[in-house]
Amino acid sequence: FLFLGICAVGVWTGLKVAAIAGVASTIPT
Question: Residue 1, SS3?
């Protein structure tokens, strides 16, 4: 269960980072 929890947190963090990067890339600099 601990391993699955760590994997879930890692995937969730990765998705959040990807979402933030995607939104930031749409903002013209």
Answer: coil
Rounded Cα distance, 7 and 9, in Å:
5
Matching residue, tokens 């990807």: 18
CB-based contacts of 10: which residues, under 8 Å, 6+ apart? none
pLDDT tens digits along 4-15 = 899 999 999 999
Residues composing the chain? 29
pTM of the full structure: 0.57
Phi, psi dihedrals of residue 28, rounded to the nearest 5°: -65, 140
Distance in angstroms (rounded) separating the CA atoms of residues 2 and 17: 22
